[in-house]
Structures are given as structure tokens and as C-alpha cells.
Amino acid sequence: MKGSVLLVEDHRDLAETISMALESAGFTMDYAADGPEALRLATENMFDCIVLDLMLPGIDGLAVCRRLRNDHGIDTPVLMLTARDRIENKLTGFEHGADDYLVKPFVIEELKARVNALVSRKRGETASTRIIAGDLMVDTRTREVTRRGRPLDLSPTGFRILRILLREAPAVVSRETIEHELWGEDAPDSDALRSHVYILRKALDKPFEPDDATMIRTVKGVGFRLDLS
Fold it and tell me: How far apart are CA 137 and CA 57, in angstroms?
């Protein structure tokens, strides 16, 4: 297979045409018909490319792209689809994090060529995405995490919490900072972060007990810090 593509398009006939064309070219496909579902799929799965329509119900394509880049740190290549062909519209798309821009109506072969180019460029990047700190190895592209060489199974939210703590280590990160980076202004109830940290601790520490292996330390009344000593 050439790779996996998330298609976000609310017009089903066009979505079927694009899906069939990319599947015939060797890609595996996933599909969302609106912005919220696109965000869910893109943050819970790894894709080689996202084909994203600009006009979507719920959350438009620009907002989806911006939130993937700014709120979730996802660098998957994005091909934006739109009927707007003015240069300022294209610039707006690029400013929100799109990698390429295709104006409707388009020839399906051009879409296939652009998806191929984005996937090839992404796979050809040579910059290291691995962070090694103490016993931990974190690959920010593949979301692979190991401790002492042992692979760890983290949830998507757990991985994001670990990245935040690793970025600031050994400093303490406040609960408010973590909640804002995870959920923006729509943070769930106060127990949600505590639950995610508990699950992350189990994933990081349980395989290495009974050693003094606790990596995430609670600083009472403040937040959490990552202990890499």
C-alpha cells in the first residue's frame, strides 16, 4: 500500500469518486463528513495525508486545519479542496496550515498526483522526529514510545500529555496549562485530566515495578512534572 488517506468531504458523490480513485492508486482510505469527525479521526489515527474540504458542517476546513496544527501538533500533509480560487483564499489556507490547495472542479488525476507528491515529500523528510530523554524515546511522528527499549502502549491523549511534560521537563506544568493544550476552552470536568494522568502513569511505570520507577510526579496544588533522573 502507498499509505493511508483521511478524506474529509460532505458531498457524498464527490467523496465516493475521490475514494475510489485513491484506492485504485493503492491508498487505504478513511472518511469523515464533517469537521468534528475529521478532528476525532485525525487525532486518534495516523495518516499519510489528509484531503480536506474547506466548506464543512460543524467546523470548517480552515478551523480543522488550524486546530490540528496548533492544538494537537499534527504535521500530516493537508490538501485543501475548495471552490474558492482567489489568491487571498489560497493564502488563507496556507496560513492555517494547508500544504497544498486544489480548486473545484478538478481533474481526478491531478488530485491523485498531488496526494502522491505530498505523501512522497513527507516520507522523504530526513529531520529526526525522535526525542531521547533519560530512559524514554519518543517519536513525535509515529507516536512510538519506549522506556529502556521496551515499547509502551499509550492512548492518544496520554501521548499528548507526555509530550507536554517532556517539552517542559524537569519543570512543573500546571494543570491549567495541560488542560488548555488538550481541550482549549472546552475542558471537560475536573477529574478528566486526573484520569488520563493515572492511565499514563500505569503505562509508563507498571512494566518496571517494583523499581522506584515513577516518572510523573504530582506537585500538590500546582500540577505535574516528568522525572527523568
Answer: 39
- Does one domain contain both 195 and 141? yes
3 state DSSP class of 216? strand
Domain span holding position 221: 130-226
> In sequence order, which ranges of the chain are alpha helices (DSSP H)?
12-24, 35-44, 61-70, 87-95, 108-124, 156-168, 175-183, 191-205
Measured between alpha carbons, how far is 110 from 52 in angstroms, rounded to an integer? 15
Tell me, yes or no, whether 158 and 57 share the same domain. Answer: no
d(CA 194, CA 102): 43
Provide the grid cell at 227.
Answer: 522525572
pLDDT value at position 128?
Answer: 55
* Same domain assignment for residues 160 and 141: yes
Residues 6 or more apart whose CB falls under 8 angstroms from that of 105 comprise none
What share of the chain has pLDDT > 90, as a percent? 49
Give the tens place of pLDDT for each residue, 61-94: 999 999 998 888 888 899 999 887 777 777 788 8
Residues 6+ apart with CB under 8 A from 187: 179, 180, 193
Question: Does the global pTM surpass 0.90?
Answer: no
CATH number at residue 109: 3.40.50.2300
Q: Summarize pLDDT for 28-51 with one digit per residue, the tens.
A: 999 999 999 999 999 999 899 999
